[in-house]
Amino acid sequence: MSSPTPARRFALLTLGCARNEVDSEELAGRLTGNGWEHVPESADSTDVDVVLVNTCGFVESAKKDSVDTLLAAADSGAKVVFGATRESDGDP
Question: Which helix (H) or strand (E) holds 29?
């Protein structure tokens, strides 16, 4: 008899506005509903299969936090980045 496959684990970092909080909660619910285990931000997120970063490109402090977070996580495992961004330089 084989042992059950352990659940895949994800960490979720939400930056920016209340809308991002809603989007992150919805995504976390869908993932956990499909067998993923949500690892809280306060836990050691080096023991996860993927880090999800919900970015914000409109709230100035969250925009900076988004860039800083992605740079800090550059050398850690798999990452998925989603959320609001906007073009920062050049013409639209």
Answer: helix 18-33
